[in-house]
């Protein structure tokens, strides 16, 4: 029997009840035999370190019913929505998924209608990036009457677009989201669902009563027993990098446009925390998210060339028995090489950026991320969580 | 009356009884009206952070009788002996000093004889650097019968050489050194003199009984009330820099020759301290000092172009009444610009490397080094030791 897979693009930062609800929906709304997730690694789309590392988050996903977790490489994961979406679609398509399920504010959005009214000049897309988002949304509204405002509607649109550009290998399964909006900052009383943002804030503040109501037990246990990281943990390193780097070297890093390197460098010395730093550099011109991604470029010393390639490999983070069977089924004809163990060659070449993101994380947590790590196997999990000396 | 100055090139890391003894010798053996010191700043010749910052060390020198302290810029201070010596001679000559006094193991060494037998091919000097030291010493021994082995004899030779190359503006005053050898690691019982190396080790170990016997009271008090720094304090930053930098970027830093950047990068992750790191990278091929200077290049992200220029300015760190009078006397015709206050232009251009060295120090200590600092005035010292927020 040939297994058929539904794919999800996620961060699971952390895995919460809304994610669990989404998994149950995927099972009822598709004929998939398993669920495959392309998940961000140690740095996430908003330009932040993940609260828990990629292995811990893969573990949480497997416990809650995901069958196979593959890393969305940093080159796609820490990017504006359209590049994030494109990278996720490439990974899932390369893994032979048949469906792409995603949560959205308006699951009844007419993607066909939107796709039919894209700008016909391909150069418009080539030039497209976050800066043009407003113009682009305006164009679509004029053409179709559909307003793309909500964060996950926009992401859904980019999934549809990336899928179309890849020759439509995936069948789209838009799903309603349960609970709060993506950007809600707080967990509401008696809620069973909350945004990941609100959950991260509560977890970092040790507000476990609030967190308990909106995440599975295993996520709660993991959050309570793990060294959680936020930008504040990396602030001394970012500050040092901004201070010691020549401004021309900063300017050569990814997304460091319009002289923002001067602004970042100037704000580094007086700021005593990442929050104070962000407060100092924030203007109407730059979104918080964009500034955080630029800060990530500085911390990881990311060069433009490293970020221009889409996903080049399929790094397996974890699987259960069905996931393993599926890997066996596809391994002969996957479109990108499967990487189950990060050898020296991968760490130094194709995987250099992911490896670096993990190394910098490990400077704070002491937990190795790529060197010697093998995929999480569930339920027979023999996780190798080697402490750095 | 025209004041006549004797110059000393020093690190005062920290100022000890041997330095005090040297000052008394200079007063008796020259007709100088004042003593001017060209002193290393926040990073010293062996490629280490100074134990105390340049302002604290200038203060200690002034208390003990030095009249004027000028910074030996990092471009000369963190260099092999011949470049260190050349920079010091340039600074003292530019300040109009008439004598250059220096401690040496063999004050009766015949510098005239050595100078008369230098290799005649100028290209030999151009190619000269530490790597060729042994060959060069062998050549001089063959030519003159004089063996240059001891550290301060070699330094003295380079002072003589630099002075000769500058047209002999300074009269050399070789002085006997009191007490222990430069490299003695421990303070001997009942000693009144000890090497700066031994004193640093004792001070970092809070062994104040030992330190007390070999330094002036003011040095002791300063050491006991100051946050002393060593490489260990900067290890987390150096480690992060080695891990996050591309090996090609490391290779483009100053003195990063023969692929040593691979060696440094590889050793960074497993090492849990600077000492362990140095132990891992040390081989017969590289001296400890050279490796520390390379580590300094990485920490301060020093480019070769920044280090190729000799001193470009005379940064005044402190003075007493006589020193001030002398500054007034020479200010119209100094060969390099006097810098008493580090303005924004100096910090960003000519003084960028010194400024960066101070900023990185201040990340550990919280004490600003250049921004807003004014020279130490003794005895009416109104030191501005502004804490960073």
In short:
Chain A has helices at residues 17-29, 54-63, 74-77, 81-94, 111-116, 122-126, 133-144, 151-165, 196-204, 208-212, 217-225, 231-244, 247-251, 260-268, 274-281, 288-299, 304-308, 321-330, 344-348, 352-365; strands spanning 5-10, 34-40, 43-44, 48-49, 68-72, 99-104, 171-176, 314-319, 338-339, 376-377.
Contiguous uncertain segments of 5+ residues of chain A: 381-389
Largest interface: A-B, 23 and 23 residues
Oligomer: homodimer
- How many separate structural domains of chain A? 2
Gyration radius of chain A (Cα, Å) is: 20 Å
Structural class of chain A: alpha/beta
Mean pLDDT of chain A: 91
Percent of residues of chain A in beta strands? 5-15%
So, the CATH homologous superfamily of the largest domain in chain A?
HUPs
> How far apart lie the N and C ends of chain A?
47 Å
Q: How can the largest sheet of chain A be summarized?
A: 8 strands, mixed
Shape label of chain A: globular
Portion in helices of chain A: 40-55%
Query: What is the helix/strand order of chain A?
Result: EHEEEHEHHEHHHHEHHHHHHHHHEHEHHE
> How many strand elements of chain A?
10
Question: What's the CATH topology label of the largest domain in chain A?
Answer: Rossmann fold
User: What is the CATH level 1 assignment of the largest domain in chain A?
Assistant: Alpha Beta
Supply the CATH architecture of the largest domain in chain A.
3-Layer(aba) Sandwich
Note the total helix count of chain A: 20
């Amino acid at each position: 029997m040939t297994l058929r897979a539904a794919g999800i693009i996620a961060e699971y930062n952390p895995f919460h009840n809304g994610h669990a609800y989404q998994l149950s929906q995927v099972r009822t709304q598709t004929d998939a035999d398993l669920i495959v997730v392309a998940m961000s690694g140690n740095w996430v789309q908003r330009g932040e370190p993940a609260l828990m590392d990629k292995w811990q988050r893969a573990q949480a996903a497997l416990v809650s019913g995901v069958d196979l977790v593959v890393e969305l490489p940093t080159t796609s994961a820490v990017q504006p929505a359209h590049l994030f979406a494109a990278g996720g679609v490439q990974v899932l398509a390369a893994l032979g998924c048949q469906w792409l399920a995603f949560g959205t504010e308006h699951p009844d959005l007419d993607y066909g209608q939107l796709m039919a009214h894209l700008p016909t000049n391909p150069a418009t897309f080539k030039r497209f990036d976050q800066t043009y988002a407003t113009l682009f949304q305006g164009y679509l509204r004029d053409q179709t009457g559909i307003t793309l405002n909500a964060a996950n509607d926009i992401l859904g649109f980019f999934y549809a677009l990336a899928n179309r550009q890849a020759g439509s290998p995936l069948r789209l399964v838009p799903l309603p989201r349960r609970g709060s909006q993506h950007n809600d900052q707080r967990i509401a009383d008696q809620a069973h669902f909350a945004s990941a943002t609100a959950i991260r804030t509560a977890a970092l503040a040790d507000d476990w009563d609030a967190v308990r109501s909106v995440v599975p037990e295993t996520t709660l246990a993991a959050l309570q027993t793990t060294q959680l990281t936020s930008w504040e943990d990396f602030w001394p390193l970012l500050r040092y990098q901004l201070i010691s780097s020549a401004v021309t070297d900063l300017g050569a890093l990814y997304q460091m446009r319009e002289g923002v390197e001067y602004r970042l460098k100037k704000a580094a010395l007086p700021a005593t925390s990442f929050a104070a730093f962000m407060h100092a550099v924030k203007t109407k011109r730059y979104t918080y998210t964009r500034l955080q991604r630029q800060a990530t470029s500085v911390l990881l010393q990311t060069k433009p060339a490293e970020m221009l390639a889409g996903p080049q490999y399929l790094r397996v983070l974890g699987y259960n028995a069905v996931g393993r069977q599926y890997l066996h089924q596809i391994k002969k004809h996957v479109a990108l090489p499967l990487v189950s163990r990060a050898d020296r060659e991968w760490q130094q070449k194709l995987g250099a950026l992911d490896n670096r993101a993990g190394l910098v994380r490990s400077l704070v947590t002491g937990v190795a991320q790529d060197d010697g790590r093998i995929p999480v196997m569930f339920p027979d999990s023999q996780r190798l969580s080697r402490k750095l000396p």
